[in-house]
Amino acid sequence: MKLIAATAVFSLASVIAGIPIGQTIIPETLSIYHGYNGRIEYNVGTGKVSRVQNGNDDISTLVTFNFPEATRGRKCELKFERDDGYPTSSPSIIDAFTSSQIATGPSPGWGPPSNYRDVQLGRLRVPTSGQATVDWGNFVFDCPAGQKKGYEFAPTGDSTYLEWSKSTDGPYIRYY
């Protein structure tokens, strides 16, 4: 009986360890952007960042966050965490950008809506499982309370592959 209780406590502790600390905002939408033809797959359940050496379609993920009024006057930090249930190159190195507009729907190709890539925030090193580390850049900013903001996660280097589930891992905002 003690062994069962101890196992339950350790199982609960490892689940709790995976939950981000502090107040968080999860993505409202994920959308896949195809760099080859500008096509957008809107509001999908799985994010993806991909580049194949000598391939012809860089794939990035457009992410929309809705910042509640509770973030007013606070600092926000863009974070990225992965569980090991999805394929990845190890480690995956990706770039993060702000978007000047959020994705609002699907697109068959070039023309609006688009990825609307804006300012580069920096570069993240995403492990197979766990928190991404910042290679360079600044991911802390004043929270834009009451607004929706878009971000793009894009491939770097010759070969990158990364997937994540919208419901369990990937990008999120921590605010404090």
Name the features.
disordered N terminus, 176 residues, globular, seven-stranded antiparallel beta sheet, Jelly Rolls, 46% strand, five-stranded antiparallel beta sheet, signal, mainly beta, Ubiquitin 3 binding protein But2 C-terminal domain-containing protein
Q: End-to-end span in angstroms?
A: 41 Å
Task: Provide the gyration radius in Å.
Answer: 17 Å
Q: What is the 3D form?
A: globular
Question: How much helix, percentage-wise, in residues?
Answer: under 10%
Number of domains: 1
**Shape-level CATH architecture:** Sandwich
Helix- and strand-based class? mainly beta
Strand content: over 45%
Series of secondary-structure elements, N-terminal to C-terminal:
HEEEEEEEEEEEEEE
Strand neighbour order, sheet with most strands:
3-2-5-12-7-8-10
Q: What average pLDDT do the residues reach?
A: 87
- Report the biggest beta sheet as strand number plus sense, adding barrel if it closes: 7 strands, antiparallel
Say how many strands there are.
14
CATH class assignment: Mainly Beta
| Poorly predicted runs | 1-17
Output the number of helix runs.
1
CATH topology term = Jelly Rolls
